[in-house]
Design goal:
This protein has 435 residues and is of the alpha/beta class. It folds into 3 domains: 3-141, Alpha-D-Glucose-1,6-Bisphosphate, subunit A, domain 3 (Alpha-D-Glucose-1,6-Bisphosphate, Chain A, domain 3, 3-Layer(aba) Sandwich); 144-341, Alpha-D-Glucose-1,6-Bisphosphate, Chain A, domain 3 (3-Layer(aba) Sandwich); 347-434, 2-Layer Sandwich (TATA-Binding Protein). The chain has helices at residues 19-32, 46-59, 112-123, 143-155, 175-182, 210-218, 246-257, 270-275, 287-297, 320-333, 336-341, 359-371, 413-434; strands spanning 8-9, 35-40, 63-69, 84-88, 100-103, 137-139, 161-165, 185-189, 223-227, 234-237, 243-244, 261-265, 279-283, 301-304, 308-311, 347-354, 377-379, 384-388, 391-397, 403-410. Helix 4 (143-155) runs parallel beside helix 5 (175-182), helix 4 packs parallel to helix 10 and helix 12 (359-371) packs across helix 13. The longest helix is centred in the C-terminal third of the chain and has 22 residues, at 413-434.
């Protein structure tokens, strides 16, 4: 588990996440929580993993509520009187053994302390109760209806043509009904629910939505949306079939909703901070950080350039389906392509530098070198984001290896390149001084 996806245990192609290991994970959760909601996506291995998980949970005496196949944003609507929930399935990859995602009942991913407590229990001895204390599994069928009603009310009415790729997975169970309810003229792609035929890639990145772009172009005036397999992320295409960048999509939602506060990752584009006049809370990189920050600071909207969007009034779960419905509403009132064209364009650059193992010393040196600069603002939530007059740069230690990530963004290429050189000098001099 990397810190970027701390609340997830991913499966792999070679089945490292075996039913036996999942059984042990279920026992660990069942010893920690006595009432648990579970759900799954349509990955062919999800039922196998879910069965092992529930067997482990009930063997400890925990009671399990099985919400069945549903997108992750819908599972908070099945958690009444339970203590946590687990989704089975890889949200961005259909070709691996299903993994596990741990969530609180309000939709937030498990945070660091929660996963630390879980990991400690996973490694410990597990003493199971007697046969008479085995827990029960009960089905729950109301989450999809509750979720559909909530998102339809959230989006309101729409009169827009839209092509939606449901990734041949759990979004197929709710997206058609939501679009019909709000009044959108929606064409569904990869929307089968037979658990066998696999459609497009589950990962809604630019390289995987080329076919969707052709369909949008063939349906004049339509916009396009691609969802990942559990409905937590989305990508979008404008009326010309051109991909909308994640930064631009985030800015569109902020402009339309006009929230008082927003939570965004520390590497967010300067366009958000330059144009949004409300309170901007920069949070750590990683899917769990946005929801956690929103909960702690009572923030109504959060998002990231990777297509993750959270709407507090619905839940704290990342919700690409709600974002798709909202984009449909926006497209009813304005032409999306024109709105994107009106957004300012900035230049970005990034690089990585390897470092030896003495991380703490290097970090102290970086802090000292940055303090010698003349800057407008400094944020140290996750690394060092240094705001300059016409741009910013970010220096942060990678979560996965001995590298330091450097990113910069500015109003023009020369200024951006200059900030990148400043950041590189800070890092290289800090590494040399620590040796």
């Amino acid at each position: 588990m990397s810190s970027a996806d701390v609340a997830m245990i991913q499966g792999t192609e070679d089945s490292e996440l075996t039913p036996e290991k999942v059984l042990d994970i279920g026992k660990t959760l069942g010893m920690q929580y006595k009432y648990i909601t579970v759900g799954m996506n349509m990955n062919p291995s999800s039922m196998m993993i879910l069965s092992s998980l529930m067997a482990g949970m009930t063997s400890t005496g925990a009671d399990v509520r099985n919400a069945g196949i549903l997108p992750t944003p819908a599972i908070p609507f099945a958690t009444e009187k339970t203590e946590c929930c687990v989704m089975v399935g890889n949200p961005d990859d259909q070709d691996r053994v299903s993994g596990l995602t741990f969530l609180n009942t309000d939709g937030r991913y498990f945070n660091g302390p929660q996963m630390f407590a879980f990991s400690n229990r996973l490694a410990g001895e597990k003493i199971l109760p007697g046969y008479s204390s085995i827990g029960n599994v009960r089905p729950y069928n109301g989450a999809l209806d509750k979720y559909q009603k909530k998102i339809s009310e959230f989006a309101g009415s729409a009169d827009c043509q839209i092509v939606i790729d449901c990734a041949s997975d759990s979004p197929s169970y709710v997206v058609p009904n939501i679009m019909k309810t709000i009044g959108a003229d929606a064409m569904m792609v990869s929307c089968q629910t037979d658990l066998r035929q696999r459609g497009t890639w589950a990962n809604p990145e630019e390289y995987s939505i080329r076919m969707l772009s052709k369909i949008v172009k063939a349906n004049f005036g339509s916009i396009g949306v691609a969802l990942n397999s559990d409905g937590t992320r989305m990508a979008a295409l404008d009326e010309n079939g051109d991909p909308i960048g994640g930064d631009a999509l985030l800015q569109l939602f902020i402009q339309y909703m006009q929230p008082r506060k927003i939570a965004v990752p520390i590497d967010v584009t300067m366009g958000v901070r330059e144009q949004f006049k409300g309170s901007v809370k920069l949070c750590k990189l990683g899917r769990e950080s946005i929801g956690e920050t929103m909960k702690v600071d009572s923030i109504e909207f959060g998002g990231a350039p990777d297509g993750t969007f959270i709407f507090r009034n619905n839940s704290y779960a990342p919700d690409g389906i709600a974002a798709s419905a909202l984009l449909t509403k926006i497209a009813t009132e304005s032409r999306i392509g024109d709105m994107v064209d009106d957004l300012p364009v900035y230049c970005r650059d990034q690089d990585i530098i390897r470092y030896p193992a003495n991380r703490e010393i290097i970090a102290k040196r970086i802090t000292s070198n940055i303090n010698d600069l003349e800057y407008r603002e400094l944020c140290v939530t996750d690394g060092w984001r240094v705001e300059m007059d016409s741009g910013w740069f970010l220096i942060r230690f990678s979560d996965d290896d001995y590298t330091i990530e450097i990113k910069s963004e500015g109003t023009d290429r020369i200024y951006t390149a200059g900030m990148m050189e400043i950041a590189k000098d800070i890092v290289t001099s800090s590494i040399k001084a620590s040796q």
